[in-house]
Design goal:
Blueprint lengths: L1 H34 L1 H20 L6 E13 L2 E13 L4 H67 L6 H35 L22 H11 L1 H23 L3 E11 L15 E9 L5 H70 L3 H35 L3
Antiparallel strand pairs: 1-2, 2-3, 3-4
Helix pairs in contact: 1-3, 2-3, 3-4, 3-6, 3-8, 5-7, 6-7, 7-8
Length: 413
């Protein structure tokens, strides 16, 4: 009963550690999204693009004119002294909406670029985090093995003093310890480098203590392979950006057709008339004149408008080809990442088995050496295998999560 309770307690502690670490990783991602200058820059670009939309969706400026006659013009009802005019141009029906649609789609494209950069940042943070976990575990495992080798060294010295083994056994342990010390220094340097990289990604003045779990949790893909591939070719943020850019140029083609159609002018002139000396005019003497006006602007020179349309058509075709090329590139990246994900899953299963076997073998060899002082070289060889499989197991765990994170980035999640 006590043993069962102990195992249950270990499981509870392990789950709590993983949940805490996952929560901290989510906190790191939030800090990165809020602080990263590249992300802020792209979001500001998107906001700037939104501000351009009302600039093209409104009518041209109202024209107001005023004229004063230095020499009044005599009319039948009196001298015309001044004139004020108001006119408004109206483009062809739907022109303003089409111009707005151009910039709406362009803004959406910028938003997708922002989302892609944010997703890429999240992947970078996760990648550094998972690799940091492996380096941290590598340091921990290496230190444990150095302690074990120190124990072996003491055991070898005891055997040498009793005359059961030669001094070569002690020297063999020294060789192993020297190599592990060198590996440990490399891992410590790598840990420092990753800490710097992690804090730069978060762009926070605070120096974070990167909290990692005792054993890394497993991030599994939620969809089957084909469903993931379909999601990538349709939902990837770069693909969606290209689609919005294509829609923008399709609307620009419509604009090219519409601006090549006539536009209309509606206006009003008001003339100020002075009193005439002709008293017989009666009530109409000096009456101001009002003249409504209507006009039409006919675009006769067609090269400009054909150029707008042809430019849009070339751009649409260019983006279509770019989209297909990008989908092909994403498919290649996905296949490689899915291979790495599957390989990491297999390696986790393999190294869990290999580590268990190696640890059992090492325990048997240590007992045998303690008894008869033989096969010390085999003890060291098996110890190297235990170290190797322990490191490879945590490397596989980190690699699996990195591959899953990259696939999620490709799918636009």
């Amino acid at each position: 009963m006590k043993k069962r309770f102990k195992h249950l307690l270990i499981i509870v502690i392990f789950c709590a550690s993983n949940i805490h670490a996952q929560t901290k990783l989510n906190d790191y991602l939030k800090i990165a999204a809020e602080n990263n200058p590249g992300i802020r820059s792209l979001f500001l670009d998107y906001n700037a693009a939104l501000e351009k939309i009302p600039q093209v969706g409104t009518l041209p400026n109202l024209n107001v004119s005023f004229g004063y006659f230095i020499q009044p013009i005599e009319t039948r009802v009196g001298p015309q002294r001044a004139k004020i005019g108001v006119s408004q141009m109206f483009p062809w029906f739907g022109t303003l909406d089409a111009q707005e649609d151009v910039l709406v789609e362009a803004a959406k494209a910028k938003y997708e670029r922002f989302e892609d950069a944010k997703s890429k940042l999240f992947f970078d943070v996760k990648s550094v985090y998972f690799n940091y976990y492996f380096i941290k575990k590598g340091i921990e495992i290496t230190k444990e093995n150095l302690e074990i080798l120190s124990t072996f060294k003491q055991l070898a010295i005891i055997k040498i003093e009793t005359g059961k083994v030669s001094v070569v056994d002690e020297l063999r342990v020294e060789l192993e310890i020297n190599e592990l010390d060198n590996n440990l220094m490399f891992l410590e340097d790598s840990k420092w480098t990753l800490e710097i990289e992690f804090n730069r990604l978060l762009n926070d003045s605070t120096t974070f203590e990167i909290i990692t779990p005792d054993i890394l949790w497993s991030d599994d893909l939620e969809m089957q392979k084909q469903a993931l591939l379909d999601s990538i070719t349709n939902q990837n943020h770069i693909i969606k950006e290209l689609e919005h850019r294509m829609l923008s140029w399709q609307n620009q083609e419509k604009v090219g057709h519409k601006v090549g159609l006539p536009s209309f002018m509606v206006g009003l002139d008001y003339a100020f008339i002075g009193k005439s000396e002709n008293a017989s005019l009666g009530k109409i003497n000096g009456r101001d004149a009002i003249m409504p006006m209507i006009g039409i602007s006919i675009p006769l020179y067609r090269k400009k408008y054909k150029g707008i349309i042809n430019e849009a058509l070339y751009k649409i075709e260019s983006i279509e080809n770019k989209k297909v090329d990008k989908q092909n590139q994403l498919t290649i990246l996905f296949e490689r990442s899915y291979r790495d994900y599957s390989d990491a899953k297999r390696r986790i299963d393999l190294y869990e088995k290999q580590l268990n076997i190696a640890e059992q073998s090492l325990n048997i060899l240590i007992v045998s050496y303690s008894a008869d002082g033989k096969n010390f070289e085999e003890v060291l060889r098996m110890e190297r295998k235990v170290l190797k499989y322990a490191l490879e197991l945590d490397k596989a765990r980190a690699d699996k999560n990195v591959a899953a994170a990259f696939i999620n980035y490709l799918t636009g999640n």
